[in-house]
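During the first year of the project, the team set up a workflow for recording each protein of interest as an amino acid sequence followed immediately by a discrete structure-token representation. This format lets reviewers and collaborators read both layers of information side by side without switching files. As required by the reporting guidelines, we include two representative entries from the current panel. The first entry is reproduced here exactly as it appears in our internal archive.
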Amino acid sequence: MAETFGSRLSALLRERKLSQKDLAIKAGVTESAMSHYVRGDRVPRASVLARIADSLGTSSDFLMNGSAVDIEGELKQAKRLIARNVSHMSQDEKMEIISILLGDE
């Protein structure tokens, strides 16, 4: 049986020891909507999908396609983007990045 959005969502709920109600609250959706997502009756809009993924500590891509996140690749790309653009950034923008990296946001 192929994995679906609903089956991946259900598995992550079990792994994270969260109820559908807990996730619904975190993601800002109704319990009924979350139930439909878990059953596979519906797929959330992109904005809701992003909040669900964030609440579960995963990516939208993983939830939708089962694709693992390439953290090393993303980190390498982020480093390149920052290095390439640092000379064009204001002091406030640099401080914002430092704040994000330190988890102050």
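The second entry, processed by the same pipeline in the following quarter, appears below.
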Amino acid sequence: MRKLRVGIDGRAFTSPAAGVRRYVSELTRAMVASGEPVELVALGGRPDAVPSGIGHVVEFWHPPTNLGWTVVGLPRAAARARVDLIHAPAYTAPLWAPVPTVLTIHDVSYERRPEWYPYRRDVLRRSFYRRSARAASHLLTDSEFSRGEIAAAYGIPQDRITVAPLGVSGNFSPDESGSPPDLPVGVAAPFLLHVGDLHERRNLGVVVEALVALRRRADRRAPPSLVLAGVDRGVGDAISAMAEAGGVAVVRLGSVGDQVLRRLYRDATALVYPSRYEGFGLPLLEAMASGTSVVASRAASIPEVVGESGLLLDPDDPHAWAEAIAGVMEDPALRARLSAAGLARAAQFTWAKTARITMDVYRRVVNAR
């Protein structure tokens, strides 16, 4: 079998989106480790951010914007690198290129629910995302939910879209060996954890409402604090104000490193994930792999990831969230059951599997030329 030379958009390795960084880094590492006949080359981006075993081509001249890079710089780098195929790992791809392009679209919330993105420039972004999707030779996505959403949003036949579920790093486990870092200042057990950007679609108000309801019950002890690990996208102050008015403790950590994140998963009573829209929901998988109970919405792709291994709830029912949180707080047997089920479920999702599916798409696209 002929070795493929694949160019990966190197800027993805330093994307401001933590999920994109995780995706491209873990996927390429898994491909290198697989022994498959593929040579990976990072096109542009910072060479120090590229994993071992992957080549690098410097950026050539392009207009000094991300759009200029994608439209001009990336195709030029691909031509100079003489790759067989370009893989654009996050939403945008060249509108023309000397070789076929595979584009990964993780979700289309910005297209399906534009009211969550009320910024003027998002109209232009949505237009470029749409054109990128239609120009690509083939699309990859993370879930069957997203596959259907992409097809509906862009009018793309589903046979041009392949689902490659994400994996979970072996760094996320119940193992507490080594020297784990201390919990961040202000965080103390018991606490509930949410991981991910603080955004309107994440629907965090329902958890605060549930905790306020628990606090008001005379027969309940004080509710746990809510720890938020993720960049604030404009809703953090409202969440904090709502919690303060109800006498509930919320700790906003912002973005945290992997070592701290692993400690948070292991020490949390549960991961709470009330999101209304997810293309996959990688924190769900990381929490389950850490042995942490999961309480999440029965919405979008979340049931695909969690299966029967967590408590799935109506995202608009604070009473149900209050009961579920009380259950995991007060019932050790329930926590143990959810932990065991989550560990078994997470074991089904590996980056090696993601890499195999992705490599198959590469071959089909190149062979179809």
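For the second entry, the following points were noted during internal review. The mean pLDDT is 94. The CA atoms of residues 228 and 252 lie 5 Å apart. Both points are flagged for discussion at the upcoming steering committee meeting.
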